[in-house]
Amino acid sequence: MSETVIATRALSKTFRTRGRTVEAVRDITFEVERGERLAYIGPNGAGKSTSIKILTGILHPTDGDAHVLGHVPWRERKQLTTRIGTLFGQRSQLWFELTPRQSFRMLAAIYRLDAGAAERRVAELGELLDADDLFDVPARTHSLGQRMRCELAACLLHEPEIVFLDEPTIGLDLLAKQRFRELLVRLNRDAGVTIFLTSHDVADIEHVARRAIVINHGSVIADSDVASMRRTLLSRKLIEVTFADDVPAPELSGVTVLAHSGATLELAVDTDVRSVRDVLDDVLGSRRVVDITVLDPPLEEVIAEIYQS
Amino acid sequence: MVLTALTTAARRNTADRSSVLVNIVFYLIVATVLSALWRAAAEANGGEIVGYSMVAVTWYALAAEAATVSLNMRMIEVVCDDIASGAVAVELLRPASVLGLRISWAVGAALPRLGVCCLTAAVLGPIIAGPPTSAVGAALALPALALAITCNLVAQHAVASVAFWTRDVRAIWFVYQKIVFVLGGMILPLQVLPDALERVAMVLPFMAMAYVPSRLASGSVEPWLLGLQVVWLVALLGVARVAFGAGERRLQVVGG
Q1: Which ranges of chain A would DSSP assign to H, the alpha helix?
Q2: Distance, in angstroms, between A43 CA and closest chain B CA?
Q3: Domain spans in chain A, listed from the N-terminal domain onward
Q4: A69 FRET partner, CA 20 to 30 A, in B43, B85, B211, B216?
């Protein structure tokens, strides 16, 4: 049975600076079920970080209501912090001059964890994150990728039910990003931890999230599962065809030729104007086809389209 | 949590040998120069200055400089930078007092440096001036020094909380430092000040930050001064808690 772990209703936050009023978050309403992997995305200044700060209790909303694991975050921050984990890509929760293991001991004392249980948890996390060898080296000597694995261990030490991650892969190289995404998926799959992720990296969203909420100018502008977002939010399909012989470029309404080279065609189809089936009928005709692929547009394009709309 | 922060910070600072060495050298230079100046002043004044003999004023200087050198005197700037950068906002996500943890950590980091300064003074003092005039006074100076640095660090956090409202606190830091140096008795015994200023200094908390341990180390056996330090520590903790708490609430309303 599903259980709502995050619920917001008409959540708003207005900042007043030097006589100017900025609505950072406007009338945001959504729910997140336990065990979901949610991407909370939007362009710079859309209100993502403000939303996370409200949901974790470090910022008061101007209006509206929110419950995280049954707590009103800004009123019951201390109780909530024992049940959630947070990881900010640009802020560290490790003490740089200590080894991660020493930082974990500090955090265990802060979270009032039993020393023996904390040691066992650190060992588990070392194995899960393949980071045991990093725990005894001062954090200041780690590469960014190594540091982020230790940051994730610090964030998971008290076994949180929800993990809020604000741009966790920022600055990581390709391999480190891939590894980090796999860790998040494994964490969700194996431990049932709810993932609430913000990122500008579309690959983070594609590989980690099942659902995406898109916000812009402080408001939710899209909320759906990632796969259907790509399928339904853009009335565009991409067709790549390789024929046995050279073909001319087609001239059809609703069809844009993206690339044409001898026997190969790349087409973009506006499905509001013409169906993919019609295009295929017209283009293929009685020609011999070597290969054909029908693709959804890249998620990056979908998101850019949503932002622009 | 407080104990873990204290011991972790203390262990971390003890393990850093190069930092310990720099600490000893710096203390040796400052304490030697200042005590030489005060001995010269006492000698020119017939072997005594404002009631302090040459030996007493040397131990006063050694204790005052131990209370100064043990501290990260830029603590205010560190706290202000952390408030401005949003690091403090992230610390709010822990189920612990941000202020309590920060003060515990700062005191834990300062205590090993204080220990090193005291050991250095125990070697240097008898060489340059002779043993302390009162063993009891010298013994009382040790807990007084620990209380002195704690009072100073708590006060620095209280002052640093101004950064929740204004980003540039360099002027405040500059003024605070000078006040502690003069009215705290860090560079001169408070009795050297004009009478009116001395009376003012004696009722301000800054005297708990250097004057009290230095006075005890100089041979004045006045155990009640330790009680006065405890009173000031409690008062300063209250002020810091109110100021930092107000700053945290502001951060939660207007953002970081």
Answers
A1: 48-56, 77-81, 100-110, 115-128, 144-156, 174-191, 202-208, 226-232, 276-284, 299-308
A2: 19
A3: 4-230, 234-308
A4: B85
